[in-house]
Amino acid sequence: MNSEASVLAPGFLIASPPLGDPNFDKTVVLLAVHSEGGALGFVVNRPAPMTLGELLSFAGYGNDLKDPGPVYLGGPVQPSSGWILCLDPALGAEEAGVIPVGSRVRVTSSRSAFDALAADAVRGAAAEDARRRTVLLGYSGWGPGQLEREIAAGAWLPVPLDERVLFDVAADRRWEQAYALLGLSPIEVMSMRTIGEA
User: Fold this and answer.
1) CA 23, CA 19: separation in Å to the nearest integer?
2) Which helix (H) or strand (E) holds 4?
3) How confident is the model at residue 171 (pLDDT cuts 50, 70, 90)?
4) Which residues in 7-31 are b (16+ Cβ under 10 Å) and which e?
5) Percentage helix, strand, coil, to 5, in the chain?
6) Distance of alpha carbon 184 from alpha carbon 165, whole angstroms
7) What integer is the mean pLDDT of 140-149?
8) What is the pLDDT of residues 36-66, one digit of tens each?
């Protein structure tokens, strides 16, 4: 594995303005896995057109769930798959369906995690969620070498993981906040790209 592959995950990929792909325009991707075999990530700032209560009801957890919390579109691959992004270091990598992303952030597709989330939604406890759970639909994937080529072409800027962007920043501000981790703004990046162009 080359050294670039070893430092990209865990981290963020922020879409360069303008990216041109409507699936990723102005997105922040939580890059969970990156190796010579490819990469796996989740868009964390694109709301889905349904609430958490609607999604859980649709998934068979009951028709009386009214949780207004957001659900996000994690990416264009398998959009019907559900994932929970959470701040839960107790969820270990040895558990099936759990992806550790750094020391505290976890992504899981396990049925038990969804069962627990639904139980909390029924009790009304989801609003006071210490694990800061967020539901994502689908994921983003890259084949071997694909992400490296897209980064080299200027489509993405890799940024170190900062869990505050995931859990303390409103979704519509995450793109700008991820740029701020580099000491930049999207407007400055656009200006840098046009310098010297006729």
Assistant:
1) 9
2) helix 3-8
3) very high
4) ebbbbbbbbbbebeeeebebbbbbb
5) 30, 30, 40
6) 15
7) 95
8) 999 999 999 999 999 888 898 888 887 767 7
